[in-house]
Amino acid sequence: MKNSKYDELQNRVNKELQKEKDKEVRKNALNIIRERHEDLSEIIDKEKLKKEYKQIKKYCLNNLERLKKKAFKNLRENECKIYEVSSKDALNLISQIMEGNHLVKSKTNVSKELNLVEELNNEGIDVIETDLGDRLVQLAGIYPAHPVLPSLCISNEEAYELLTGKHLPPESEISIDETVKIARSGLREKILEASVALTGANVITADEGFIGLIENEGNQRLITSLAKKHIIITSIDKIVRDAQDAITIMKTASFFGLGIKTAGYFSFISGPSKTGDIESTISYGMHGPEEVHVIFINNNRSEILNSEFKDILMCCSCGNCVNYCPIFEQIGGNTFGGLMPGGRGVLFTLFAKGEETAFTKGINLCATCGACTEACPGDIDIAKLIMKARKKISRNQLIIPRHREILESINKFNNPFNEQQTQRINWINNHEEIETFSNKNSETLLFIGCMSSFRTKNQAMSTFKLLKLLNIDFDYLGSKEPCCGGILYRLGYKEEFKDKIIENTKILNNYKRIILLCPGCYSTFKKFYSGGLEGVEIKHIIELLPEDSQLNSLKTKKVITYHDPCHLTRELEVINPPRITLNKIADFKEMKFNGINSRCCGAGGGVMSAFPKLSQATAATRIDDTKSIKNLEYILTSCPFCEKNLKRGKDSVDSDIKIMSIQEFIINLRENQE
Ligand code: SF4
Ligand code: SF4
């Protein structure tokens, strides 16, 4: 079945994957910020900052109506002009406020909701970005490489050419400092020419009616002091209680987004410039602006505030979610984003621009790995919200054909692979062995899951053998084993998933303990069946391995590392058990991004089935995370999806490293010993 929107998206993703230079630049930008975070980890208590930030944001969102009234009142008392308008009316309003045809602007996310630069350009207004990175990107006519390091793909020579319109003469050199001076003087002229400055607001305080701005370059201070009129484009979710809250939010945004202790400038503006020095009479516009216009754009934020998606508004636009997003690293924010890059951007785009835009901006590109939540000061569970949002996307118009096939296959065959259920037991050569070792009267169930039953069969086999060796008595459902349904939830088929829970619970409730090998099934049972499986103990095989008294005797000198599956690590916090086991059996070394900070292999969230090249490229990057480990022979994991996808990634980079499950590695050691 042809689906043009999906085909278009797939093509864009695949084209983006081929842009090696852009990818390299993005990777460098992300590494810079990640390294800054690491460098500051001793100085800044990230968790404390997160806690304070969350308390403030939660309080403010819960009391937003009251705080908004107070903020509006105080802003008015400070002589600011306040407007609450639609995006379209905001553009008309700006045109009316304009004087001359030059507008100087600093970074503002909300202005993207208006498509402000293009719309004003169409009206003959020249909009000049004053942040150097944004200015270079504007002159180059390209999409920003990164939300806070937009011009990272532009070299010093290219910057010189963009700023001067001239080629650097052959054999001549120019230092970065000289280029910056050229930028400064060119922009200074533009800033002096403009009567109107436009900025966003990082925060707005209710108690004082302050507008808080963060920046490094000083361009915001300059434009908001020199222009005759200052326009602020903002939204209600920026409102906090007071200046104290504002400072915490601005400190948080600096650290999380930029990886710096504090930004160069924190500014508070509380209204137009004024003097009372002549006859004690207030007059406006002494040195700074004589008018300050604060324009609030709602763009369905009120709807979000009163919905199950409220947490989207816990955001301060710091951009840190994309610094750790494996999909953003591969394809950037132009393909995966929308009004902001990454998963949070797509979510907000769904509300501000509708389903079709959210689809084309990649609501289905998220691997639901949860790395962004770990990175986010507001702990916004972007993966969970994306899964909820997917069910909002209309199914017939915007369906991904492979995802529809998965649904149909589960309905028809009880597995996502269009395989007859009789094939489910083919991971074991001798079917009688199952009969011998699985005990129908056991209170423990071994749940293999669809991926290992049909694809990564070695994981199923080695888990089966390990349980026997551990003398664990268990039952196995064989060809009657159902699909756990987790993939239905992740693809947005919530109603079908509910039916699956009801159907499966009847079977699973017959046991006191379920042992699994798939972290996807594990997280599905633990998180979504919780009520239905009350009293049933659920364990991943990896949690039982440290009980194996023979592990020490298996010790080999082989160098191994471990790829933490996202579901197991971030969702269920199973971090230490595999490490206890691995340290006993081999020369275990951690790879880059491990434990709670593990990086996704790109298999999850339906990405491997719908965007295979993207998931393969993501896996290849994950393989690359091991390159500093000397003499590495094995990457072990504890997830059938990760095993499959890491192998695909390895094939694309032509590596000698072997990839297998921990279970298979142990069984090989044991069998070689015998
Ligand atoms: S869940 Fe993972 S893939 Fe999705 S937006 Fe967050 S970091 Fe990116
Ligand atoms: S979602 Fe979180 S990490 Fe991403 S921009 Fe917003 S506050 Fe920052």
Overview of this protein structure:
It is a single chain. By secondary structure, the chain is α/β, with parallel strands linked by helices. It has five domains: 1-43 and 302-393, Fumarate Reductase Iron-sulfur Protein, Chain B, domain 2 (Orthogonal Bundle); 45-127 and 195-299, Rossmann fold (3-Layer(aba) Sandwich), CATH 3.40.50.10420; 130-194, no CATH class; 401-545, no CATH class; 550-673, Rossmann fold. The protein has 34 helices and 20 strands. The strands form five sheets. A six-stranded parallel beta sheet has the order 1-12-7-4-2-3, sandwiched between helices. Strands 8-5-6-9 form a four-stranded mixed beta sheet, with helices on both faces. It has a four-stranded parallel beta sheet with strand order 14-13-15-16. Strand 19, helix 33 and strand 20 form a beta-alpha-beta unit. The chain is elongated. Bound molecules: iron/sulfur cluster (2 copies). The site of one iron/sulfur cluster has 15 residues, from helix 15, helix 16, helix 18 and helix 19.
Q: What is the name of the CATH superfamily of the largest domain?
A: NagB/RpiA/CoA transferase-like
Major sheet summary line: 6 strands, parallel
Distance between the termini: 53 Å
Tally of DSSP helical segments: 34
Mean pLDDT: 93
Total domain units:
5
Structural class: alpha/beta
Residue runs with pLDDT of under 50 for 5 or more positions: none
Ligands bound, unique: iron/sulfur cluster
* Helix content percent band: 40-55%
CATH topology of the largest domain: Rossmann fold
Globally, the shape reads elongated
Identify the strand order in the major beta sheet. Answer: 1-12-7-4-2-3
Determine the strand fraction and express it as a percent band: 5-15%
Number of strands: 20
